[in-house]
Specification:
- The chain has helices at about 5-10, 95-115, 140-155, 165-170, and strands at about 5, 15-25, 30, 35, 50, 55-65, 70-75, 85-90, 120-125, 125-135, 160-165, 190-195, 200, 215-225, 230-235.
- By secondary structure, the chain is of the alpha+beta class.
- Helices cover about 20% and strands about 35% of the residues.
- Helix 2 (about 95-115) packs across helix 3.
- The strands form 4 sheets. A 6-stranded antiparallel β-sheet has the order 3-2-8-5-6-7. Strands 9-10-15-14 form a 4-stranded antiparallel β-sheet, covered by helices on one side. Strands 11-12-13 form a 3-stranded antiparallel β-sheet.
Length: about 240
């Protein structure tokens, strides 16, 4: 089965593209190219629209990976499905995606402020959370909020590079999330860097400059287990 061209890897600001249907079924529609980010790494999948060759517009309710973690499935509302080989137009809900990009980038900043391994995260359009392997917490909401917003206002441009698995193995400290590993067979791993602040492998979507995030507020810090602290934030 041909693979899907992931335009979001090259340009997170690309909001639409044309594609050919590879397969369509009750689990979703597989395309040869897409701008839609599939739910993974804690980040929600994209929603939007799928316009068929005859002009009919289907509501895209979610974008997910199939069980094989290779194929991307576009899930739509209703029973109508396009035919394999049909040309379609895919468009994301840009306002929603941009909020996800802003919050995902903000979690990179937050992770740089807490010197502890990450055990998980979750990013929705309105709030985000990150969990730290932190048995005892001295974290303070107001302090984190102030330091986060200072990093945001610094207006630092992000950089993206590609490295090999072998190069990553020589820099194991780049991997902040416990148990995280690149997908098997990956030849190149994307590294997202906020110069002077954070540098780590990440397949999510991000803004081009920290100033684009806007002001945020840490709303709560929770003890999830004996060695797990969760920090939750949202837009101010």
């Amino acid at each position: 089965m041909p693979s899907t061209r992931k335009w979001f890897d090259d340009d997170a600001y690309l909001a639409q593209c044309e594609a050919t249907v590879l397969a369509a079924g009750p689990d979703g529609i597989e395309l040869d190219a897409t701008v839609c980010y599939a739910r993974s790494g804690g980040q929600a999948g994209d929603t939007g629209t799928l316009t068929l060759a005859d002009g009919a517009v289907l509501t895209l309710t979610d974008t997910v990976y199939a069980d094989d973690r290779q194929r991307i499935l576009h899930q739509v509302e209703g029973e109508r499905l396009p035919r394999p080989g049909e040309r379609v137009a895919v468009a994301i809900d840009w306002a929603r995606r941009h909020r996800l990009m802003r919050l995902h980038t903000c979690l990179h900043l937050l992770g740089s402020l807490v010197p502890a391994p990450v055990t998980g995260c979750g990013i929705s359009p309105d709030s985000a959370r990150i969990d730290f392997d932190l048995p005892e917490s001295t974290l303070d909401k107001d302090d984190l909020t102030a330091r986060l917003n200072a990093l945001i206002r610094a207006a630092t441009a992000l950089k993206t590079t590609l490295i090999t698995p072998e190069e990553l193995a020589r820099e194991p400290d780049l991997v902040r999330t416990i148990g995280a590993a690149p997908p098997a067979g990956t030849a190149r791993i994307r590294i997202v860097e906020i110069p002077g602040v954070d540098r780590q492998p990440c397949g999510g979507t991000h803004v081009a400059n920290t100033a684009e995030i806007g002001e945020v507020v840490v709303t709560r810090i929770e003890k999830k287990s004996r060695s797990n602290r969760r920090v939750v934030l949202r837009f101010a």
